[in-house]
Design goal:
By secondary structure, the protein is an alpha+beta fold. The protein contains four helices and seven strands, in the order αααβββαββββ. A hairpin with a 5-residue loop joins β4 and β5. The radius of gyration is 22 Å and the shape is elongated. It starts with a helix and ends with a strand. Keywords: Signal.
């Protein structure tokens, strides 16, 4: 009976310690092919902000917050004053995302800075990283968008990967090209 009990305790300790050492995710195969992301379609297609930032394959956290930004009606807000030209800075917080959006008097989005932490990355990006760094685990990520009306969108993916005690910080633009 002592041997059975001792064996069960040893197996339990081994299973627990082994489970804690497993990485979150890694891909060791290098034969996965990807395709480029395409724009998503919705009722907001005419909105310049939406046309610039909306991409298929983006995390639901990102699309939900962007939808909230698009649906926000400045004119129904108590601080809105149509008698004078002004800009309004509105902050949206939702789940792992934060958006600081600047609206003009007409309710048009003229600028935004969005930051998302630990979101689901577009499929192509983790595959690309896994090909370059096989058997490395994804530890955390940050996705930052800077939108300015009539200017290029600046998007940055910052991803921390690890393998054992070694860690690397990788940065990619919106086309998944590495930034050093």
């Amino acid at each position: 009976m002592k041997h059975v009990f001792l064996t069960l305790v040893v197996l339990f300790i081994y299973a627990t310690s082994n489970a804690q050492q497993n990485d979150l995710a890694f891909l060791s195969k290098s034969d996965v092919e990807t395709t480029h992301s395409i724009k998503r379609r919705t009722a907001h297609n005419g909105n310049p902000y939406f046309r610039t930032v909306a991409i298929y394959g983006t995390s639901k956290i990102v699309t939900d917050l962007q939808q909230e930004v698009l649906n926000f009606n400045l004119k129904n807000n108590a601080v809105f004053d149509k008698s004078e030209k002004a800009t309004y800075r509105i902050v949206f917080n939702k789940n792992q995302g934060k958006a600081v959006v600047i609206y003009n008097t007409d309710g048009t989005i003229i600028a935004s800075k969005e930051t998302y932490k630990n979101i689901k990355l577009p499929y192509e990006l983790p595959v690309k990283i896994s090909k370059t760094y096989p058997e490395w685990a994804f530890e955390k990520n940050t996705y930052t968008l800077n939108y300015r009306n009539n200017k290029n969108l600046k998007a940055l993916y910052t991803i921390q990967i690890k393998k054992g005690n070694a860690k690397k910080l990788l940065k990619f633009n919106d086309r998944f090209q590495r930034i050093d």
